[in-house]
Design goal:
This protein is mostly helical. It has nine helices and no strands.
């Protein structure tokens, strides 16, 4: 007698396109931006292939719906999309505006996000040593962007992946051991080499 039928696995691509893609998401601009960019980035960190068309849509949306900095949480995801698309001029411009706002006391995240943008850009270029140099000091300051553990994990998982790609397993282990108790699993491809 055959066993119970297994449910077919739903692919990440299906989940994204059915629930998170811009045309399906029911939230406002900041939610659409953060949910879409975070999902795509996390799936890549976990080893899934890049969905170039989805990134292009997220980037185009960011440029039109959130053209100016304002919220650290939304800006985190805009700079991520700009880094993925290789928009160095856009990253520089947004970073300068965030720094100007911070100097005027109008940007609570201060210089955190402009610095983070340089780390994401280095990671995206495959310069993992430069990404580590920028991201490692920021790891203890994640609360400056607001948001939840999900946003903080996005940054820590990027740093973790940079450690793994740079063959710096000891530092990856230290980062893992410093995570708060009860934290969720760490979906980063190559993690077994650091454990």
């Amino acid at each position: 007698m055959p066993g119970p039928a297994r449910k077919p696995r739903i692919s990440l691509e299906t989940i994204y396109h059915d629930a998170i893609a811009l045309h399906r998401h029911s939230g406002g601009p900041q939610q659409r931006m953060s949910d879409g960019a975070a999902f795509l980035w996390r799936s890549e960190l976990a080893g899934h292939p890049r969905d170039a068309a989805a990134w292009r849509a997220i980037y185009d949306y960011a440029i039109s719906a959130l053209p100016s900095p304002g919220s650290g949480l939304a800006d985190l995801h805009v700079i991520l999309a700009q880094a993925v698309m290789g928009d160095d001029a856009g990253l520089d411009s947004r970073s300068r505006r965030m720094e100007d706002m911070a100097r005027e006391g109008r940007y609570p995240s201060g210089s955190y996000l402009p610095t983070l943008s340089r780390g994401f850009a280095a990671f995206e270029r495959g310069d993992f040593f430069a990404a580590i140099e920028v991201l490692a000091p920021l790891a203890a300051e994640n609360e400056r962007i607001g948001g939840s553990r999900a946003q903080h994990d996005l940054i820590e998982f990027t740093l973790l992946k940079a450690y793994l790609e740079a063959d710096r397993a000891e530092e990856a282990q230290r980062l893992l051991s410093a995570r708060r108790p009860g934290a969720s699993g760490v979906p980063v491809a190559g993690l077994a080499s650091a454990q």
